[in-house]
Amino acid sequence: MSQNVLVVYATKFGSTKEVAEKVGEIIGAKGIPVTVRKVNSVKDISPYSSVIVGTAIRMGKPVSEAVSFTKKFKNDLQNKSVAFFSVGLYMKDDTPENRDKAKKCLMPLLEIIDNPISIGLFGGKIDYSTMPLLLRWTFSKDKTGELSEGDWRNWDTITGWVDELLHDLRSSNVA
Ligand SMILES: Cc1cc2nc3c(=O)[nH]c(=O)nc-3n(C[C@H](O)[C@H](O)[C@H](O)COP(=O)(O)O)c2cc1C
Known about the structure:
Layout lengths: L4 E6 L4 H15 L4 E5 L11 E9 L2 E2 L1 H9 L1 H4 L3 E8 L7 H10 L1 H4 L7 E6 L1 E2 L6 H8 L9 E2 L3 H18 L3
Parallel strand pairs: 1-2, 1-3, 3-5, 5-6
Antiparallel strand pairs: 3-4, 7-8
Helix pairs in contact: 1-7
């Protein structure tokens, strides 16, 4: 089967979209046809051999549109190579404990597709200027420092994950 990859993203404030675009850019640079779309704008996944679903983590869960997409296309996805990635604050530091916490947040997706070819767990971004006023106020008042502004997306880590994923897709011969 010839390679054709769909990357979909579920975002609230745009940082997951930027990660999805980076993933698409890396795949495209290898000469593999790739489409990057907001998750709820996709109506048909039949043209694609592989699907990468990326989501922000909110309150310990994927963004609901990512779950709806995966549920809606469950049958089609079962015949394709599927990868998931998440973007969130739990992965500010890449430790085994944090990976565990971040992976648990993806359970609603893993309950639908339990054998993804790969799972990427990436750090996220907090930018108060993108938030509605009340949320911005709540985050900025946090005394623990855990909700402070910053960008923990590590582009080298993301690139490394995509390279490895492409290698796995080639080995499984269905990319
Ligand atoms: C209301 C809210 C709840 C969040 N909950 C979590 C969480 O439970 N776990 C986590 O790792 N990150 C959490 N985050 C951090 C976001 O996932 C992170 O900032 C991510 O980059 C946002 O992606 P987006 O810009 O695509 O929406 C939360 C952020 C907000 C604003």
